[in-house]
Amino acid sequence: MPDNDTLSKVPEAKTVPKKRTHLSFVWIIPLIAAAAGIWIAVTKILGQGPRITIVFSSADGLQANKTKIDYNGLEVGTLTSIKLSSDHKHVIATAEMSPKAKDFLVKDTQFWVVKPRVTGLNVTGLSTLISGYYIGVQLGQSKESERHFTALESPPLTGDVPGRIFMLKTTELGSLGEGTPIFFRQLQAGQVVSYELDKSGEFLNVKIFVQSPYDEYVTPDTRFWHASGVDVSLTAAGLRVQTESVMSILAGGIAFETPATDSPLPPADAGITFNLFDDRTDAFKPPVNDPHTYLLVFKQSVRGLTVGAPVELGGIPIGQVTQINPQFDAKTMEFTVPITVTVDPERYGVKFINAPTNQNPLATHKQVIETLVSHGLRAQLKTGNLLSGSLFVAMDFTPDAPPVTLDWSQTPVQLPTKSGQLDAVEDSVADLLKNLNKTMTNLDATVAGARGTLTNADNLLNSANQLIEPNSVLDSELNNMLMQGGDAARSLRVLMDYLERHPEALIRGKTGEAK
Amino acid sequence: MSTANPTAMEQGLQSCHGCGLVSCPTSGTEAGRCPRCDEKLEFRKPKSLERTLAYLIAAAVCYIPANLLPVLTTNTAGGSESDTIMQGVVLLWSPTGWPLSLIVLFASIMIPSAKILALAYLIFSVKRGSIKNNSQRVKMYRMVEIIGRWSMVDVFVDTFTVSLIQLQPLMSVEPGPGLLFFAAVVVLTMLAVESFDPRLIWDSADAKEIQPEVQHA
Questions:
Q1: Would the pLDDT of A373 be above 80?
Q2: Within its chain, how far is the Cα of B211 from the centroid?
Q3: Which chain A residues have a beta carbon less than 8 Å from that of B181?
Q4: Quick one: which of A182, A265, A307, B20 has the most CB atoms within 10 Å?
Q5: Do β-strands A68-71 and A134-138 pair in parallel, antiparallel, or remain unpaired?
Q6: What percent of chain A has pLDDT over 90?
Q7: Residues of B with CB under 8 A from a CB of A
Q8: Pairing of the two strands A310-313 and A390-397
Q9: What per-residue confidence (pLDDT) applies to B210?
Q10: Residue range B108-115: average pLDDT?
Q11: Could you tell me what percentage of chain B is helix, strand and coil, using 3-state DSSP and rounding each to the nearest 5?
Q12: Is pTM beyond 0.80 here?
């Protein structure tokens, strides 16, 4: 035990009052507030979808924070800002998509502004008059993710409708435009999606969409033609008015049909190119089979002959006029019109039977033509339509035609011609006039002769006149004769009277007046 | 001069929060009760600064989403549109509507933020034991107390709008999440003001009485 001295030196232990450090209950409130704030922030961040930019040509009707991006009526995003591009040519809109729309954003996804559109054919987007424009989306098929898009000028016509896209080649657009209907047996089967000039500048490529199930009827043999408006044509065949439907009169259209065949072809692959014909007749012209060109030289007027005029053999079209090249020969002072015709009889269904069997088809052809010409095949211009005066080339056999030799060295080969129908008429009229002239000359001589005869006749009549004029010898003689005749008649009557009263006098003779 | 005016606490007296009756505290550790209104008697509000700070921090936290989140969502046939308070101010700002816009700006944005800042300053100055501008700080406190409740106007207007404009297929108005936070800001700042004991302002001045020349300087 230590003593007091030592104890007094030891310092006393300090007593520290127990600190009350426990936090006030009130701190729960800021904690709750912070938790709520953090929770809101987290959900906001998690709820934030990808940001995309869409390039528009115009910001017409678009509003930041208001314009929605709509997919099949479901909101998938909102435009957050709209600004001009650095070159001031476009409008770049930034949109915030909902997180669910993440897989929408692939390379070929398309955006466009949905606004009221009134075309000749339909009215769409009327609801946007009240709601304001919104942005439509069409999902792409690509797997490649994309954040920058360029909006379409107009809604894609194909939509999500199943069908196929084909290309048409045409030299003239006519009244076609985006949305022009495509008809199949007068039913609307699709639309024109877009068109553009080919790089060569020679024709237009028209992209069309044929919706299911009509796309099944498009085979590689299908023909497409302009069904635009009313097609009025005045040809050698007469006046033709053709139209596809009332709708197509107003807005134009394209029609297609597949020629009926025994074995239908399988449906065409999407994206293949077809020719767009001017009309149905054109579209259904048989394909070129074995065309040959010939030269026909006419010395007469070819007024009424056009390129495309038919060449007929015995009334059946076998080809058409392809060129008309008039020429003037200064040496012979002759104006001629050589025309080039393309003849393809088999194309027009002319069957060729008992053909000479020759290995070389060209030689066969030569032989056939030689034979035909030697049998009198001649080309002639004929009036196809009296109203329009249009001409066609008729190939006819003229058995008594002078023989011709063909010059096979020149191409195309020149075939013999003969003057046309009208020409022949003109010739006959000239002949007639010539004969008439001759007749007239003869008539002159006849008339001179006749005049002499008439003078003689006059003399004759004068003599006759002298004979029978009053106080002439003949007259007095005649008078005497007539007077004597009268006396004779009177005596005869006295006799007859006497005889009547005395018939017996015939037997007894005159007895005097005894009774 | 706070130093010249003795406080009740210095005199060993307590005043009742409810009726203002001054009484002598009980000798025990138990808090006494007001002999007139039975209110708990304390020299100062317990943990005043701590509670005020807690409410203030909560209010400040709520103030951020209150301004960032939409307070009102308008659904029309054309689509829905959400507006935050600031967007509302901008929307109202027009040659004719600017007074309304200013009211919203003051009541909904400036007053809550001013309140938060003012209280933060009061807490800070009391904690530091500042003795400057006592009367100014007291005035500031009174102002905050009076003006604070008016911020609730915004909440009421929104609530009325929501309940009145319900033309279902054509148009409807829905409250946004920001409104909840905004209401929380208003309520929390009011609680903060309530829990702050203004007497602390001059208490610190009394504590620093040892250097009166500083205050006079």
A1: yes
A2: 32
A3: 36-37, 40
A4: A182
A5: parallel
A6: 6
A7: 47, 50-51, 54-55, 57-59, 61-62, 64-65, 69, 77-79, 81, 177, 181, 184, 188, 195
A8: parallel
A9: 43
A10: 84
A11: 55, 10, 30
A12: no
